[in-house]
Design brief:
The chain is α/β, with parallel strands linked by helices. The chain is built from nine helices and 15 strands.
Amino acid sequence: MKDLENRLLRMGKHWNKWAKRRGIEAYRVYDRDIPEYPYVVDIYGDSLVIAAYVNDTVTSRKNYEEWNQQVVTTIRTVLGFSEDKTFLKSRERQSAGTQYEKKNETGTKVVVSEGGLRFEVNPSDYLDSGLFADHRILRDRIRSMAAGKRFLNLFCYTGSFTVYAAAGGAQTVSVDTSGPYLEWLARNMQLNGIGEQGHEKIRDDVRKFLEFYKGPSFDIIFIDPPVFSRGKKLERDFDVARDHADLIENALAVLNPGGVLFFSTNMRKFRIQWKPEGSRFRGSRVKDITAETIPEDFRNKNIHTCYEISKD
């Protein structure tokens, strides 16, 4: 495993210095850089999260479990993390119509800084830890646009985009079907000294919310839906490939003229269903901004796809 050790030593030192200069405490140091070691390694403050990408080629190797443990020990030792601050997760290719579920109930909480703001993450219980580091650039972009604006965050998750928009001076509305995620958002707002006034949290199916919303329109909308979702609060399953065009069209209906909608997804090989000559998004301009929204520490340039949709 000498090749893995050398890579970790070099990249760990590089990205640690890079992150410190920028005041970033949630970042990626290794992303399947060596094909023989298909792991992704993220640092969240004093915690290390290792995601093993499970496939038949890897698991079929002799003594896989022992080898896997050796890899994990090598990663945490080289990067200088103790065993109790190291969290191992497995990522498997999801079949159509499946979704990731909560993995543990340890309640581990870590507070990390990014862009002068603070966020609670949970490195142990979920496949994702509560802060998508690959959206760091877009969060800052929205903050820079937010002064005096109304911001709508759909599928708001733990609300990091809402925190950035509020810190930039926007009034916000955040929508998600998950009560625990909205509570997480509230804690993130509190961590940054942001009160409840002017910041509304709504537990609802996003599609239902857009269908019945009658309040003031918005200047900035952010949509980052799951690739697939089902749940008690959903009137029907959500599939991003099938449902994104309707979702965007309905969101544009509550976007002010001159406003901008950002749509992002982690679906592989995603292409937005938009035709300039059609009526789907009439009066809007669609621009693929993926390349300019992926941070330096993410060598996987397909980590997400992002579109900017401007309304005339």
